[in-house]
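seq as requested:
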Amino acid sequence: MRGVAMSLTAAASGFVVFLLSVSVIQGQDGWEVTYTSTQICAVKGSTVNIRCSYTYPSTMNGLVTKVEKRFWFTELNNGEHVDLTTMSEYSDRVQYNSKNEDCTLSISDLRERDSAVYKFRFITNHSTGKYTASPGVTLSVTGLQVQVSRLQFYESSNWAQLKCQSSCPLPGHHSYVWYKNGQNIQGQTSDSYSAYVYPADSFSCAVRGHEDFPSPSVLIQGQYGLGVTYTSTQICAVKGSTVNIPCSYTYPSTMNGLVTKVEKRFWFTELNNGEHVDLTTMSEYSGRVQYNGKNEDCTLSISDLRERDSAVYKFRFITNQGGNYVGYPGVTLSVTGLQVQVSRLQVYESSNWAQLKCQSSCPRPGHHSYVWYKNGQNIQGQTSDSYSASFYPADSFSCAVRGHEDFPSPSVYGPKLPSVSVSPSAEIVEGSSVTLTCSSDANPAAKYTWYKENVNKPLSEGPQLVFSSIRSSDSGQYYCTAENKLGMKTSQYKFIDVKYAPKHPSVSVTPSAEIVEGSSVNLTCSSDANPAANYTWYKENQKPLQRSEGSYHFTSISSEDRGNYYCMSENQFGQIKSLSLSVNVQYGPKRPSVSVSPSAEIVEGSSVNLTCSSDANPAANYTWYKENEDSPNASGQIFTITDIRAEHSGNYYCEAQNRRGRQNSTLHLIVVAETWKSIIIGTIPAVFLVVVWLSVFLLIRKKRTSKQLHKPGDGSDNREQFSQQMLVGLHTTSGSEKALRSSRRRKTRLSCFACCHHDKERLRTMDGLIDQEDSEERDELHYASIHFSKNRTDPVYSNIRPAGLRKHEEQDEEEDDDKVEYAAVKFNSASTPPRTRGQETGEDPAACYSTVNKTAELNRKC
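struct tokens:
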């Protein structure tokens, strides 16, 4: 045990009286608080020191005990423990002694409203290490008052005897100061003062050295011998007893030559509305009030006192001469009941031990015998005002003054089982205001402390635990403890179920590893909600997939199921959308699609791209193979052949592969030889034009005898000429041979031929020849011999007849029915140029010759 109980002496700062000067110790298991006195009376304006010391065990459960907080508080109606230093009415007037285990309280500039019961409390670092010292110290603060102890009336003035006093007898000898009409009366230092007074005079007093705290001024009202004298202006009485308030009054025997008689006299209390109502007419005093009717005695007697009888009582009388007088300042009656005070308490495992005292705030004069009761039963042999005994938590105690057993003190007992209520009693929604209230039957009134299950420290003190805006995290089990001087009880648990909308949604996928097509997959959604949330699954922005308790199941997941999923959590209080969950389904390649570019006929020497693509996850790798070849030709999605040849023709297939599988597709490739294509492309336009003109020549040939196109010895052998010479017959006219064309038609076609070869010189030559033939032998038959230049060893033969051209030719034949035209066109080979007319004449060997019938001037530009 740390420290020892300290014996402290009373040191008054100002004027302080210790009415009950005994050491009071409360303690258990090393916890103790010692008050030097439990009742102190002090004068308004002075400073009081309330002596106190405390001790506590140095260790608990192996841990060093440390005092974390200590403070004084007053007995408030709501039972809260509020530190005096935090209260505005005590601001700058309260000090705590912080030396060691000294807990002395100092209050300066005392005011009458400072009257209260003061208690010391300290809290340590242990969850159960908190201690409140009971019964505390009762401080009564009172002011000085001027009491009129005697008053005599004369015709011209009155004589009064005054006394300066307070309800707290001031110890020792003190010097006083008297004031008349606010002015210091010199030479007056006693607590009594006698003088002649006039009706308008007022008097007050103060203790020398404390002139700032004088008594209230008293107006000595009285004239013509009218006056009231109270023996005491303050009386304290015990509930149930009878009190006598002594009083006397005087009045002149005659006034204005007439005998004075008192017509009415009565007592009244200071009511709020200021009315003077006779007590005998008030129902609450019925049968309990008596006035003494002897001579000028106005003593008031009130029986069966009740605490609500506490008030200021004044006497008033009215005479037949219009005399109307009220005795001031009146008498203050305080009615208090007996109380059992727990002066010491010790707690043991099975029971407790207490020292009790029967007392009241009004000191009773003389010696009295008391009666004690335990659980309502008289405890025989107990007549003292103190009683010590062991007791159990359910025991109760009371006391009474012998002879006044009908007015016992209230029973004191430990708290009964506390009850906890919740407001509102309906459903509790997050964000609302909620109040928990703890109540217990206890005397003295219990102090309440709130706890939450699994929380090591108290939540708050006081009968109510208030949540101004309750949160979901506040859900849980709550309980309270009710504690007074005789014990402590713990309430049952009260469950607070806070309802709230879903929050913090989370989504997960099982299995969490790679998801393979065809496997079983679960999507799970969870959310913090009360009541439990309902869940709806969505795939991206599609319609809802399923309402469930949180899971969405794929029995055999497919590649089409891949994508982003999210869930919606909702209950009647709201809804929330989760983050997206990506479901990546892995699968082997689907059947590849293959293509070739360019998509037209593939010619030797060109560049070709073979492309392969397949839907796969992870992405496929591609390999190209040629049929009947073991090794791959290429890898990658695109297989490029830059200089393709005929031997590249054949079947190719592409294989798409990833770690989930493989698939292949075949492509057939045909390569066309480059020589044939070049010849065909290059000769088709020339052959087409030549064939058109040959059709004219063949028509003329039918009417004339055949003419050898080439003579022996032209410069090339017959075999080569045969391979280079091609006769094409396009048209044969039967009957009247009306197929001869006009010279105009022939000239136009030859012009087109020449233009297509971009040879204007030949155009002019051919135009001249046509004109010449037209004039010399219009009706002669012409033969055409056409030679093609040999660029390659392979001959190319073409037999072409445009349908549209034939139609126009038939129309022209009808127009020129009687005209026969012949044309001979000769092309020389660059390699073996034949000997032609042009060579003999010195003309251009590449010139074209034709005989036409010219009918009009040719005006055509190539």
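The two ends are 133 Å apart (CA to CA).
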